[in-house]
Predict the structure.
Amino acid sequence: MTGQQTSTVRDTDSGKAPEATAPASARWRAAVPPPTILVLIGVAIAIVVVAGITNDSFLTEGNMTNLLRQMVTTGLLALGMLLVILTGGIDLSVGSVVALTGIMSAGLVSGLPLPLAVLMAIVIGVLCGTVNGIMVARFSLAPFVVTLASMTTFRGLTYVYSKTPITPTTPDFLTLGSQNVGPIPIAAIITLLMFALGWVLINRTSAGRALLGIGGNREAVRLAGVKVQRHLVLAYALSGLCAGVAGVILASRVGIAQPSLGQGFELDAIAACVIGGASLSGGRGTIGGTLAGVVLLGLIDNLLSLYDVQSYWQQVLKGLIIAVAILVRRGERQNT
Amino acid sequence: MRLELRGVRKGYGGVEVLHGVDLTAEGGQVLAIAGANGAGKSTLIKVLAGAAPLDGGTILLDGEPLTLRGPEDAQALGFRTVYQELSLVPQMTVTENVLLGALPTKRGLVDWPAAHARVRALLEEIGFADIDPRARAGKLSVARQQMVEIAKALAVEPRMLVLDEPSAVLAGTDLDRLFDLIRRLRERGVAILYVSHRLAEVMEISDRITVIKDGRVVDTLTPALTSEDEIIALMAGRRLEQIYPDRVPESGKPLLSVRGLSRDGAFDDVSFDLAAGEIVGMFGLVGSGRSEVARCLFGADRQTSGTVELDGAVTRFRTPGDAIGAGIALVTEDRKHSGLVLGMDITDNTTFATMPRISHAGLLNTRRRAANVQDMIERLGINPPRPEMPVRHLSGGNQQKVVLAKWLLTRPRVLILDEPTRGVDMATRVDIYRMIDELTREGVAILLISSDLAEVLGATDRVLVMRGGRLVAEVGSADTTEDEVLAHSVGVAA
């Protein structure tokens, strides 16, 4: 009875087409729409072209740099979120972890050497994720409930650490979030590197295949000798790691760390994964798709601001666009 | 009623499965469909259920062209399908499952007494009055669940009933009752399509047998004018000389010694030896504790007491990983539930149990992995031979080969097979028996758990019989009969 509702996996990353051995396969290829990632790239290019023609400020170097910078937080969170989603879980606490690690890095940096302060904040993120992972894996609690509880707990801890915004005093701290290499923000380079590592993890390590397997059929991989609990903890810990890095970068970019930082960020991260083809029931999702989802969400945010759309309408439009993206993917899945 | 398929074509995931199938089903007749794995039986069933739109060809109902746009269309015409995989909602009662979406109401509220009464009447009609309509479906045995599925299909009088491997989970009197039901439905003029690998049943119940191979109809036969051998030959496209390999039982030193193994609520005080190069069968009715013993030996469940010795050393596996490390492999009975990750491809599914061995510092050696997978595809003849194919798209027999491949890669010394041929066609079965036989020549010890009496006697050297959680008999396969083994398993003197 399990698995009947879940639908076919498509290997969107590899782009491997079936070999044309029989006329049947040629016919099949014509009948099936292109994989998610190609659709997403196509849509993104269309948006860029239209925006470039209709808006003078869109294709400027300043706006492009800004766009990349804005994508960093969602990107990092979506990367961690993908690992959790692959196992069939979800991590609602990442927004709170961003706040906790952001404010702690901003606070710690006044008393500790910069690298140590940053490292400690990231370690805090990993710890937050590990707690989630242990609750989910060891005590078999529902990920949604566990991370809903820890979302509140971590947010509370943030306010315990500081009720008021903290302005980091060390000028070097601000470098991380605001400096560029050429037109490209350092933070964006870090994010891309982490995505590359994420790709290696998922596609080239036994741990990554295990994460997918756990989401696809936990019992089958358990009986194949995969240490399920350990891998679940790993997924949540890595989600915490990503959130920690995102928190530090965000605090550094904004230059002032608010305890209310990061509220609702988990939703963008989940949306990026889902738009990119990940299945919330686990076992399916790709790094490329998720990155494309992040870019698409970033473009939408950026454009709605450029066109001076009221922020409440921005939310409405964004919600609708996500809904459409998911509908499109649903139609595509039914074809396989 | 007369339903004709003409030149029906249908493909999935890059492979055309049906290459122009012609078929005629008539009211008041039982048409059996026989075919090897991958022949296209499941796809054909989906086409008839309206669950798979045609890629080509036509369906004629009483001579008129028919288009099935979805399962609703097929249902509206009275076409009912009982799939091999159960689709009951385990948390709901039998009544709710049977009358799903059509519960009788009184003043807008569900009329429970009427609903239960109606379902009780239905269950009586199909010969299973002993199923309680108020019971939760998930609490019933698999065989009972299968009958509830059939009751569900009969909730509205069908014109055509498609049964996909209905006997896979039924045995003995349950099967007789099913056959009685089929005969009564036939008299009422229902067209029945009986899809099964079990040729003895097919010969018994059907009026005509259509054999399909590689997505084409090979022949349509009348049971009285054919033989099982002929059908097997047609299905396989070659004549199978012999189903079970000849075995010369030899009893060497025990490789695995089980002493007083118990697990509360599952089985009690089980002791036996397994020697290298030996094939030992384990027979027992569902619920006799066979699979539980296997899971325990494999470290998937904990034992309450008893010892297991491997090569003379006492071992205690805490996880399946420990057991795999020690050279024990378990092919579980339900490949979809516990054997395969359906959404992932052949490569991943074949290598899940050996990932640590083909990785270095966590990084997979993808070249070695690909080579291993290729070896297995060739050795076991997995079809289609495409490593990147999601196993969901494979036929039952090929899915089972993927599970076997996963365990062969672990190079086991003790291979436990739990119902390895369930839902697997005859040609693949023969492949599996031959492969097991070859493994024993390399010194592997095999424990073959099965509820198929012919198999448990034919493919093994000796047989252990379980009943009610206890090991009740041990007999040499060559010196016993099916009747004797069955008698031990139900507890009556032979």
Summary: Chain B is about 35% helix and 25% strand. The CA atoms of residues 113 and 329 of chain B lie 50 Å apart. The longest helix of chain B spans residues 172-187.
